[in-house]
Structure formats: structure tokens, C-alpha cells
# Entry
Amino acid sequence: MARRWNGWGDDSIEAALPAGGAAFLEERIGAAVPPHDALLAAVLERIAAQPSRLAAMRGVSTDPEARLRASTGQSLGDWLRLRFGRVGRVCDAVAFPESADEVRTLLDAAAAAGAIVLPVGGATSVVGHLAPPEADPRPVLALSTARLRRLLHLDPVAQLATFEAGVAGPDLEAQLRAHGFMLGHYPQSFDYATLGGWVVTRSSGQQSARYGRIEQLFAGGTVCTPTGWLRVPAFPASAAGPDLREWVLGSEGRLGVLTEAAVRVSRLPECERFEAVFLPDWASGEAAVRALAQARLGLSMMRLANAAETLTTLRLAGHAEAIAWLERWLRWRGCGEGKVMLMLGFTGSRDQVSAMRRQARAALRSHGGVSTGALLGRKWQANRFRGVYLRNALWAEGHAVDTMETAVDWPRVPAMVQAMEQAGRDALAAFGERCHAYTHLSHVYPQGSSVYATFVFRIGPDFDAAWARWTALKHAVSEAVVRTGGTISHQHGVGKDHAPWLAAEKGERGMRGIAAMLAHFDPQGLMASGNLMPERGE
Ligand SMILES: Cc1cc2nc3c(=O)[nH]c(=O)nc-3n(C[C@H](O)[C@H](O)[C@H](O)COP(=O)(O)OP(=O)(O)OC[C@H]3O[C@@H](n4cnc5c(N)ncnc54)[C@H](O)[C@@H]3O)c2cc1C
# Structure
């Protein structure tokens, strides 16, 4: 199973864009021209020409491909650099420690060499966490956690599991399942993202409504900081002053390397179901999910796609005849042109699941909801980590895809959807290009919701054109998010791409406080320079 070097996922898995899907996108953004991708060999040749300044360091790899893979995540900016072969700066070497003690030794050696240390988990960041800082002249050591993946301790009575922090989603769940337990943290990047990455980016999984976001699951852990170990004990709850877990959560590699994490696990559930319900329009859909969230029924998931995303999902799904039949039936039931799709998750004992389904259906009926039974839910479940492979297929047709997400309170949700989509369209219009924008609410809470927008546009003829389109879009949508009162990220984190907008919500005093806390553990600014705050020298 080889991982793609310039796209998403396993090299052996291909997704195809259905014929109807290609026509649908062409209608919206125009005919796209498939790009010529750079060859890996050519990119590696260029990296080999950037001599490593850490070649003499013990136990590190200076292999060009290892350096490349440790320096790129999955943001559209990362894709553009890889696909056009314009990789820029990469790390000088990569270390693969096998124990916390080796992490300590590496951090000390990096400090002695005056090198920046960049922890790397599953390299699934979509906000530029892993690009080495351009302006900082110090050498960069990437520290991969790929070999830190053991379950260290499971306490079945307390339902607490302690893992090495480099364990990736499927491996973590398999190790727990062997003992009848599970974590239940399912970001769409589950196949590769790691426990350490989840904690330090404040990740949210598809079923976080049941199991909790990672900040509820993370009970404590150990961080190797440049000035020593920070050990955060796990308590069920504590009133003992500020919570040190909060220093680790969202630290994005700047505090140190999270080597171990204790997480709150659950028994495997008896029953799990997903169901699709359609509603006549956005207003009824939004009112319905708000009512469900505020009724606190205990659903494991509620994802509401707006009309544009619902239509896009149906057109890109293939199976044109079956979809046409479904749409005819939905129209007959009152869900026509502006219909929206709501995917619901139910988890628990059989009795709990049937009680939740009954209550949810009754509530949804009062908003005009039409249930389609379990088929679409089963399809969603089977493809929950596969849908993202479509991005590879879209790129091959000449389409770039980017996503931006935030969270706001309920009164601001409609304005946020509108502001993000419009900002994306306006940004591309400045280049004479069209942008197909659509949105869903991926995580709903009693007080408000996350808002997750997707933008599809033509890549452009060359790197400079594509880069200009992407950065204009990123800038415009980030501005719209902040202007409309949202957080700069609900789940992807800050990295380097969102760093310019962090002060808008933390304030200058708050930013100085964060900087002082980080400097306490890392006075030389060795760790993950450039994430959260502008890099040194800027
Ligand atoms: C297709 C796709 C779908 C996604 N879906 C979701 C989603 O549903 N929900 C969501 O929340 N996110 C999602 N993401 C974003 C991403 O997967 C998360 O941010 C994830 O938490 C990153 O984990 P990682 O192990 O890949 O970290 P990396 O990308 O390797 O690193 C991210 C940051 O964490 C730091 N880091 C990693 N490990 C450690 C460690 N042990 N100690 C200290 N610092 C560390 C790195 O230095 C870096 O700054 C998605 C990404 C993609 C590409």
C-alpha cells in the first residue's frame, strides 16, 4: 500500500468522475484543461540539489523523498507545489524516533545544531502546518512520529487508553477493538491522521456529537518540550486552576512533541445506523437541525448540505437513473429544486437507537422532512473515507478543490454561508473565472454550528496562475469568516495559512499571552516555527 506523493491516499485506489458529473461542473465553471503533473523523479532531483545542513546528525534520513513527504501536507497550496513541481524549501532531514527517550535526544541534538524541529504526524494538515518556514534561515529537522504507535496501557475500569501519539486512526481503533473498546474519532482523514495530530490541531470527527471532539477525548499526556518534559495527568474532572491540557490542545507543534496521550474510550456500541432525510429548503433544514441539537436527543451525527451541495452530491454520485428516480419521488413528496440533504447518525443500544430514530423522525416531519430509509446512509457509511479520493479525479480533469470552515452562533449561520460562498465567487471573478461554491453544516451544537464550504474552480494554465487564484480565494474567504463573526477554524487549525487571522479572535493581549506561554517551554523558538504566529524574521 503506497501512499500517493502528490494527492490523496493509497496509490492503488482510483476514483472516477461520472460522465454526468463532468458535464455538471463544466456547466458551472467552464471546460477545464487537464494539467501536466510534474514527475516525482524531477522533483526529487531538485530536492537533492538543496544540500542538507543536518547530514551529519546521527540517526536521521536525508533521503530526498523522505524530506519531500515530511514537508508537505494536503492543503491546496501543498498540492499546487507538488503537482507543478514547485516545491520550494523542504526540511533538511527527517528523524523517525522509536521511543520518547529518542525524541528527547533528538530535540537536544537539534537545539545544539540550532535547528528548527517540525513534528510530523500523518501529514494530512490542510492549513500549511508542514511547509518549512521560508524566511527563517535555520536548518529544519522534521520529526516523524510514524514509529510511535503502541498502545501502552488500557484501563478497562476507568475506560482510559494511553497510546504513543503517532498512532494513526485505523491502527488505533484496531488495537482498541481487540479489547472490546473504541475511541470513535473519525475525521475524514482518519486513514492517515494520527492521535498526536488530532490533539494539537483540535480535531473534530464525523461522530463527535456522540464521542466528543478531541478536546473531550484527550485526558492527559506527555510533551517533550525543548526545556523539559511537560506531564499532564488524566483526571475525570478537576477544579485545580487552569487546565494544562488546554496548553497542549491547539499547540500545533509549537510547544514540543506530544509523545503519549491518554484518551477516554468507550465500549463498542451494539448498534449504529446512518440515514438520509431530505427537507424542502435551507430554512427548514437549518431549523430542523437546530431543533434536534437543542432537544439534545443524543444523535451521533447531523450533517446538513445546502441546496448547492445536495445537488452536487447527487450529480457526482453516478447511478444517474436511480438518482433521477429518487429526485422524482422527492419532488412528489414536496422536496423539489431547493431541497437539502441531512445525514443523521444513530449509535447506542438497539433500544436507544430506535427511540432516537422515532424522536428524530417526528421532529423532522414537522419541518417537512422526508426520510429515504437506510440505503443512502449505508452508502455514506461505506464511502465515509473514500469520497475524498474524488479530489484526485477532479484534479485530473483540471479542477482545483479547496475547503474552508468556521463556527458561529445560530443567528449568524445563514449570513456566514452566504458570505463564504460569495467571497469565493468574487475572488475567482477577479480572474475572469467562475467558482462553484457549496456548503454544509458538519457539526451542530445547541448554540450554533460549524459552517464548511467547498470551492471548485479551474486550476489554471501554470503554477503562477493557479497559485494566484488559490491565495486570492483563501484570503477573501478568511476575511469573510472574520468579518461575519466566525472563528478562523472549527476543526482544521491555524497552521501558516490561517495565522494572519488568529489575532482577530484572540486579540493582541491574548496573542502576547500565547507567545509568552510558548516561549516559556521553547525560549529559542525551535518548535514548528511559523505555525499559529508569523515566523521569526517576518
Ligand atoms: C481529506 C482530508 C479530510 C480531513 N478531514 C478532517 C476532519 O473531518 N476533521 C478534522 O478535524 N480535520 C480534518 N482534516 C485535517 C487533518 O486531518 C487534521 O488537522 C489532523 O488532525 C492532522 O493530523 P496529522 O496526524 O495528519 O498531523 P500533521 O498534518 O502531520 O501535522 C499537523 C500539525 O500537528 C503537529 N503535530 C503532529 N503530530 C504531533 C505530535 N505528536 N506532537 C506535536 N505536534 C504534532 C505538526 O507539527 C503540525 O503542526 C482533513 C484533512 C484532509 C486532507
Summary: The radius of gyration is 23 Å. The chain is about 40% helix and 20% strand. The mean pLDDT is 96. The first strand starts at residue 60 and ends at 61.
